[in-house]
Structure formats: C-alpha cells, structure tokens
C-alpha cells in the first residue's frame, strides 16, 4: 500500500543501508536513484576492454574500527584485506609517503634521520610559530614549516579545493595523522579491506529483499512526498528546496579514464599516487594494482588508469562530491538554514553526504543510516541513552 510505503531517495550507502535495515524489520521500501546503477559513488564495474575492476567515482577503500559496521556489511560480502598506502610524486625527489612520515622528511630534505627525536629537531628549524591556529596554513606550517606545507598541502588544496590554504579551516588537515616514524598506512583503522566481489555485488545483495522495490533511472519529484509514509533523502538538500536560499558549495571531480601499457608501471609502487606539481590532476590510479576482483582479458597489452581532475561543482550540471567547508563558515551557515526548514517538514529526513552536507567516509554513512533506521523503528541505538 503506497501510503505505508517508505521512499528512500538514493541507492548509495546511505539509502541502501537504511532501506535494508527497514525492510529487515518488516517495512516496505521503495528505493529510487536517478543513476542507472546502485552503489552511489562506490559503484564499480569491470572495464569491458581489459577486465580490470574500476571504481567509477574514484578509488574507494573501506576502512573502519567499528566491529558492528563490519558485521552488518559482512552479511552481503566477503572481504579481501587491503592496506592502503599513498605516495606523492614530488619533482626531483620521486615518490614520497603520504601522510608525511620520517621517510617523507628524509626524501624531501635529503637527510638520513632515524628517530622521532631527530625528525623533531629538523622540523623545529622550519616550523613557523603561529600564536593562534586559525587556518589550515597556520596548522601545517606550525608542524612542518613553509616548504613542506607548500608542496604537500598548499598545491594540493589549490587543485583539490580551488582555494588557498589560508581560506580553509585547520580541521581539514588536523584529521591527518602526524607521523614521526616510518609507518606508511594511509588509514589507522583496525579493519581495512575491499569487498571480495566488488561494491556493486555487495549492493545487489543488500537491496535484494522482498520488502525492497528498486527503481533506477528515477529522479525524485516533489509529487512523491504525498504518496509515501516517510521519505528519506540522500539527495542534496539545497536541490530539494530549489536552491532558494542559495547554492551549497561542492567540489566536483572529472574522472579521465585511459589505458597504459601492461608491465610499464610508470613509477607506480602503490595503486594511487598524488601529484604535487600544481597541475590539474590530483590523483592517478593504476587499477591493476588494487586486489580486484579482476578478470583480465588476455592479449590486450593495456590496463586501465584514471586521473582525477577536481573543479567547482555547477549545480544541475556536475555530480557534487565534496562539500566545501571554508574557514569563513559560509557553506555551513547556508546549510543550517536548509536544515532548519527540513526539520519543520513532517515525514521527511535527510541522510548521507549530500543530505547533511558533510564529508562522510563509507563506514560513517553506514553507521549513521543504521542509527536513523533504528530511531525510525523505535529501537535503541548503540551509544544513545534509552
Ligand atoms: C572521489 C571520492 C573518493 C572517495 N573515497 C573513499 C574511500 O576511499 N573510503 C571511504 O570510506 N569513502 C570514500 N569516499 C566517500 C564515499 O563515496 C561516501 O561515503 C559515500 O558515497 C556516501 O554515500 P551516500 O549514499 O551518502 O552518497 P552517494 O554515494 O553519493 O549516493 C547518493 C545517491 O543519491 C542519488 N541521487 C542524488 N540526487 C537524487 C535525486 N534527485 N533523485 C534520485 N536520486 C538521487 C545519486 O545518484 C547517488 O547514487 C569517497 C568519495 C569520493 C567523492
């Protein structure tokens, strides 16, 4: 019966997890997505020419320290352990570890330091004392000094965010671990893996439930509100309101797919490298170096590579990927106006990255949507007082 049916807009992690949890508790759920595939930005598929698995919206590495999130998702997938390491290609110095560690400092300054104390002593000569840490530049310079800050953070920020480091809040960098040894794992979580058969296979299983009706290629329309018991939306909140308070700032990414000769790794010692040359490309991915699942087509002589070229997202034209949280708080204040209006609506809940204008990793979206589902069902939520 349509009146009791719940509508979920978006078949990415936010929408699909919510839909499955509601369906598991006996609810009937209609899931729509304007794309022709589920999985949202985690969608992957085999490259038809070469048979390598490609994440269509950039490499997605699953990482979490939440056993509950792993257990919940493991109903739909087995996992291939994978520990992500990132290298930055630095002019004249080759590939150096990111986040910055002892080896990065040695490679950059041409030193042979071996201890945290030696690294501290060297950086102390370069650190800039900022009495108050307000911006991301203040933060980075106070730890690494001007040269490392310019090369590893300022250039990347210009290309990635289209902004100077001085215009970004310190919080964009203070999330990164500060390493004083040679550890080079990108994430610190206890669980790091890729779904054994890929993300799309995981989503197919998650959405395969008699209580879930999936409609791909279907965009949200306001007329849908009246015919559903409750509507959960992972679409951009400003789009829902017709942008009438203003446009929330997002960065888009253009994915430039190409091919490279098999065997010629062009310097890739890890699957994804960051470029620091200040050019338009932030990251380059060599898909064969991820664990797959790959089903290589013999004899093609090539394998897929993808460059990421960030730019400002134009509403209605580009996919909106990264919410921009600038130091002046502009986007945040605008979001709060939309959020207040959304809260005044009956039977409407915004979820996920674009619904709540927050950068979420996948495990965070999963945990958030499980919480939203349980609250809707009147069930206790872990970590909340009953
Ligand atoms: C380049 C990139 C790399 C990333 N790498 C990682 C990583 O390594 N590890 C990690 O944990 N996270 C990563 N993330 C974050 C991850 O993509 C998000 O956590 C996740 O996609 C959020 O899920 P979501 O459902 O909120 O949003 P999405 O995945 O964007 O799903 C939203 C869905 O809603 C649909 N939709 C939007 N508007 C409408 C509408 N009007 N009508 C119908 N459907 C609509 C969209 O088509 C989309 O399918 C990365 C993100 C990006 C952009």
Describe this protein's structure:
With 386 residues, this protein is an alpha/beta fold. Among the domains are: 6-38 and 207-247 and 324-377, NAD(P)-binding Rossmann-like Domain (Rossmann fold, 3-Layer(aba) Sandwich), CATH 3.40.50.720; 101-174, no CATH class. The protein is built from eleven helices and 17 strands. The chain has helices spanning 13-24, 67-73, 102-109, 116-124, 136-161, 171-174, 199-206, 237-240, 330-343, 352-356, 362-377, and strands at 6-9, 29-33, 44-46, 53-55, 62-64, 79-81, 86-90, 94-98, 191-195, 212-216, 230-233, 250-261, 272-275, 283-286, 302-312, 322-323, 348-350. The protein has a seven-stranded mixed beta sheet with strand order 8-7-13-14-15-12-16. A hairpin with a 6-residue loop joins strand 3 and strand 4 (53-55). Bound molecules: flavin-adenine dinucleotide. Flavin-adenine dinucleotide is lined by residues 9-15, 32-35, 40-42, 57-62, 219-220, 234-235, 253, 321, 352-353, 360-363, 365.
């Amino acid at each position: 019966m349509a009146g009791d049916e719940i509508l979920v807009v978006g078949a990415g992690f936010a929408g699909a997890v919510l839909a499955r949890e509601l369906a598991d508790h006996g609810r009937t759920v209609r899931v729509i997505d304007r794309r022709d595939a589920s999985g949202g930005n985690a969608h992957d598929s085999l490259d038809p020419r070469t048979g390598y698995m490609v994440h269509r919206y950039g490499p997605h590495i699953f990482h979490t320290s939440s056993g509950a999130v792993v257990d919940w998702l493991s109903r739909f997938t087995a996992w291939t352990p994978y520990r992500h390491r990132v290298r930055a290609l630095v002019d004249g110095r080759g590939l150096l570890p990111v986040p910055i560690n002892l080896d990065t400092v040695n490679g950059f300054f041409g030193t042979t330091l071996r201890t945290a104390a030696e690294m501290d002593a060297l950086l102390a000569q370069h650190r800039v004392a900022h009495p108050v840490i307000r911006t991301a530049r203040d933060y980075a310079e106070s730890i690494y000094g001007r040269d490392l800050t310019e090369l590893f953070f300022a250039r990347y920020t210009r290309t990635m965010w289209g902004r100077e480091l001085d215009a970004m809040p310190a919080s964009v960098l203070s999330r990164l671990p500060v390493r004083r040894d040679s550890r080079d794992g990108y994430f610190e979580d206890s669980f790091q893996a890729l779904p054994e058969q890929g993300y799309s296979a995981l989503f197919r299983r998650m959405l395969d439930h008699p209580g879930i009706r999936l409609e791909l290629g279907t965009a949200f329309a306001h007329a849908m509100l009246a015919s559903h018991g409750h509507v959960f939306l992972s679409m951009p909140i400003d789009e829902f309101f017709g942008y009438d308070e203003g446009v929330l700032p997002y960065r888009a990414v253009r994915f430039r797919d190409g091919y490279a000769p098999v065997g010629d790794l062009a310097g890739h010692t890890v699957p994804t490298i960051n470029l620091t040359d200040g050019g338009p490309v932030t990251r380059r991915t060599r898909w064969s170096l991820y664990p797959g699942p790959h089903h290589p087509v013999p004899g093609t002589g090539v394998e897929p590579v993808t460059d990421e070229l960030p730019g400002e997202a134009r509403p209605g034209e580009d996919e909106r990927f990264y919410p921009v949280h600038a130091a002046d708080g502009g986007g945040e204040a605008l979001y709060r106006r939309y959020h207040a209006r959304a809260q005044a609506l009956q039977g409407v809940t915004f979820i996920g990255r674009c619904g709540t204008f927050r950068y979420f990793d996948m495990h965070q979206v999963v945990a958030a949507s499980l919480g939203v589902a349980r609250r809707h069902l009147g069930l206790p939520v872990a970590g909340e007082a009953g």
